[in-house]
């Protein structure tokens, strides 16, 4: 069964749910319930001493009020002295802070930032943590769905008939939706000979045909795609994470480490991004939060040495998974790629099949820039899959279609929120449904 067939089936089920009549209660039952509620809400009072109770209550309230006012006056006077002292102390403190070195400020800021970031993604025992995968995709892709839907509706508002202008406007729509130039051209070319489009009687028919063709092209481009993690047959599974600074590599490692640990795996982290200020500290915060071990090196030290120590420890102490964080200084492309190549040589020397995965972490909010980054990394290192972060914070979810169509790399994980549990294994059918739900109608 193709992706669009799955999509239509799920959409049909939702439409059936939407038209189900809402159950109504018997009017007599509702009236009886209202009477009971009114009786429960009416306060009862002893007829003999009700007046006395009211007077005593009033007197007590007045005494309380007077006492509160006196306490407030005394407290205000004391606070006035304290405020003056605090202001003087604050002035002294500020002057001392100005005299401290900028490097100390940066270090403290980075550590606090790492702790805050880890705290912000802390899992909580709430209903949101118990959402199903479908619900997470639905919420995480809401901005992308609404953005694409608004552009599609604007496009259809000008629709009169299928002609050359129609296809030019459609290509513009696709490019604006971050599905990529190649995908836009393929879609336009395939629709030119689409009989259903030529016979479309309404704007909704046109919308259905466009989305169906997009899903079919996406499905075709992903034949034989492996979206699961390639685990080692024996010994530690080594997963390298690459990507530019700011894409979310360290946070992704922290969330994935928590995920694998909860699955019963013994996890080790290697902090090989030794040149970015605060990178090791940030990963260390995650290691403590997740309750996993970490191998670190000196600041500005050799990243390959950290990798060597990490893989030695993973083999000797029976770890199931080794996560390797790497630098992301794309502006120093040659040096960066040389570093990555050196790390891979060390891993392969110690474990012949390692690394088992090289995951490229991309920030979905950057749209087509993410696609450009993916092309550069793919040219320089053997990327095996994509982790697409921050999908919930952008209207550019169409980038997933471009990645598959142009790079032929599987998206393996997606970030659909800030919580640890919001890092989800990629599910193409859930993604397609979350992106286009509500934009297609089905018929029996």
UniProtKB/TrEMBL annotation:
Family recorded in the similarity comment: Belongs to the GTP-binding SRP family. FtsY subfamily.
Catalytic activity: GTP + H2O = GDP + phosphate + H(+)
Keyword Zinc belongs to the record: no
Comp. bias intervals (Polar residues): 39-57
Localization of this protein: Cell membrane; Cytoplasm
Function according to Swiss-Prot or TrEMBL: Involved in targeting and insertion of nascent membrane proteins into the cytoplasmic membrane. Acts as a receptor for the complex formed by the signal recognition particle (SRP) and the ribosome-nascent chain (RNC).
The protein's name: Signal recognition particle receptor FtsY
Family annotation (PROSITE patterns): SRP54
GO CC annotation, single: cytoplasm
Gene3D superfamilies: P-loop containing nucleotide triphosphate hydrolases, Signal recognition particle SRP54, nucleotide-binding domain
A biological-process GO annotation: SRP-dependent cotranslational protein targeting to membrane
Statement: the UniProt record of this protein carries the keyword Transcription: no
Annotated region described as Disordered, given as residue ranges: 1-138
Location, primary (coarse class): membrane
Chain's gene name: ftsY
Biased amino acid composition, Basic and acidic residues: 58-78
Topology of the protein relative to the lipid bilayer: Peripheral membrane protein
């Amino acid at each position: 069964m193709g992706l669009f067939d799955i999509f239509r089936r799920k959409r049909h089920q939702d439409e059936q749910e939407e038209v189900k009549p809402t159950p109504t209660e018997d009017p007599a039952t509702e009236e009886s319930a209202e009477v009971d509620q009114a009786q429960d809400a009416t306060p009862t009072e002893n007829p003999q001493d009700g007046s006395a109770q009211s007077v005593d209550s009033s007197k007590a309230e007045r005494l309380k009020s007077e006492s509160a006012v006196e306490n407030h006056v005394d407290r205000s006077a004391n606070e006035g002295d304290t405020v003056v002292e605090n202001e003087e102390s604050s002035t002294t403190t500020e002057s001392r802070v100005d005299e401290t070195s900028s490097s100390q400020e940066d270090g403290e800021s980075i550590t606090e930032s790492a702790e805050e970031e880890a705290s912000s993604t802390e899992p909580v025992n709430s209903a949101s943590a118990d959402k199903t995968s479908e619900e997470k995709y639905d919420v995480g892709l809401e901005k992308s769905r609404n953005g694409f839907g608004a552009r599609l509706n604007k496009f259809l508002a000008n629709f009169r008939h299928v002609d050359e202008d129609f296809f030019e406007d459609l290509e513009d729509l696709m490019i604006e939706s971050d599905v990529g130039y190649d995908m836009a051209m393929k879609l336009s070319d395939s629709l030119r000979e689409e009989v259903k489009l030529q016979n479309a009687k309404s704007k909704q028919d046109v919308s259905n045909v466009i989305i169906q063709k997009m899903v079919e092209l996406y499905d075709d481009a992903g034949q034989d795609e492996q979206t699961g993690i390639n685990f080692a047959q024996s010994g530690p599974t080594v997963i390298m994470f690459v990507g530019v600074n700011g894409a979310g590599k360290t946070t992704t490692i922290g969330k994935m480490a928590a995920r694998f640990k909860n699955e019963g795996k013994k996890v080790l982290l290697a902090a090989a991004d030794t040149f970015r200020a605060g990178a090791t500290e940030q990963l260390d915060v995650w290691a403590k939060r997740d309750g996993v071990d970490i191998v670190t090196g000196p600041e500005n030290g050799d990243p390959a040495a950290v990798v060597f120590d990490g893989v030695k420890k993973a083999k000797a102490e029976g770890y199931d998974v080794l996560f390797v964080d790497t630098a992301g200084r794309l502006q120093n492309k040659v040096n960066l790629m040389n570093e990555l190549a050196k790390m891979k040589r060390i891993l392969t020397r110690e474990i012949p099949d390692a690394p088992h995965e090289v995951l490229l972490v991309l920030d979905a909010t950057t749209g087509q820039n993410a696609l450009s980054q993916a092309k550069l990394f793919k040219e320089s290192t053997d990327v095996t899959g994509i982790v697409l972060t921050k999908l919930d914070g952008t209207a550019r979810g169409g980038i997933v279609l471009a990645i598959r169509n142009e790079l032929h790399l599987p998206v393996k994980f997606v970030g659909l929120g800030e919580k640890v549990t919001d890092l989800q294994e990629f599910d193409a059918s859930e993604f397609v449904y979350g992106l286009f739900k509500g934009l297609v109608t089905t018929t029996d």
